[in-house]
């Protein structure tokens, strides 16, 4: 487990390796999660609170339900990635639903907090999933890619999951 701010981040479910985590999760100091993916199959990051939950606190000391995140992933799969999808899950293996309050900043319609250095476009799906898919780009084997986004959880939980799914060409 890697601790940063009021949260811990774990690769305990396998398929990838976290190499570092830093930041407090605020806009000025986002969580930066550096990782290495060994295959082009979905992997799941486990996120837990390590400090008390205090919704909407902006200090970075408490688990607030608002997390600015940057994922920097090394493609060590041996195959180029042509898309990359993230999915939030409050319960592992179950689609996030409206009532759980967990989303990729569902209340905003602009792209102010969503970007990638390797993909030009993105799309978001809500209900019954909370998915963020990056498209129109490519990440070659042994190359790094960065993704930035905002996770909001208006009913903060002690644990939730971020499924990461690199996509390879279909033919």
Automatic annotation (TrEMBL):
Highest taxon of the lineage: Bacteria
Name by which UniProt lists this protein: Uncharacterized protein
UniProt organism field: Aminobacter niigataensis
